[in-house]
């Protein structure tokens, strides 16, 4: 097994750069960290390019991992690469796979417009999977799927559940062409309670930015605008909580 002990090694520098979106886009790859994410990647056949394991990790903890492309790294390098407070000492570089807009839709989809909190995005991806949605689309301004905090929040869900990144208007056009409704989520005079909606089997549900809500131009393209009635004194709901209520209720 190859061994690298210096942080000055060029490969180590390249792995570190994968924490930036620019490098992820340039290299068409991304970095995952931790036993759970690596195990999920291997279980679902993700294209693992390299796997790095700290010298501190006991060999019996990874007996079935493929030896090809496995690199043993020093504890210092593991700490350098880690984006967590308590590194587990295991990493993998995964090749990004292109996903095109499907030709046919058989389930509803969740669209995220400029949602910027990684925890919210990860939670909504996992909830959409649990609710039986066809996929999640991360629109313009939404945090990158391959951001390390998003990846930890999804718990590896993106390895088996479709998550796309692209222009929401392109998806809207596909849905409209098939006569599938698109529901916005903006509290205004035209909004109706989600309880009044009898959603069909296929539709799009759009969740907007945590503070500003949906982009007005996208809002104009929606079929109907929904809101969640609040009976207490709270002014609003967290976007991931609201998405969970709507996804399960409309489904």
From TrEMBL:
One of its GO terms (molecular function) is RNA methyltransferase activity. One of its GO terms (cellular component) is cytoplasm. Residues 31-100 form the RNA 2-O ribose methyltransferase substrate binding domain. The keyword Transferase applies. Keywords: Methyltransferase, Transferase. Pfam families: MRM3-like_sub_bind, SpoU_methylase. One of its GO terms (biological process) is RNA processing. The keyword Methyltransferase applies. It comes from the Bacteria. Belongs to the class IV-like SAM-binding methyltransferase superfamily. RNA methyltransferase TrmH family. This is RNA methyltransferase, TrmH family. It comes from Desemzia incerta.
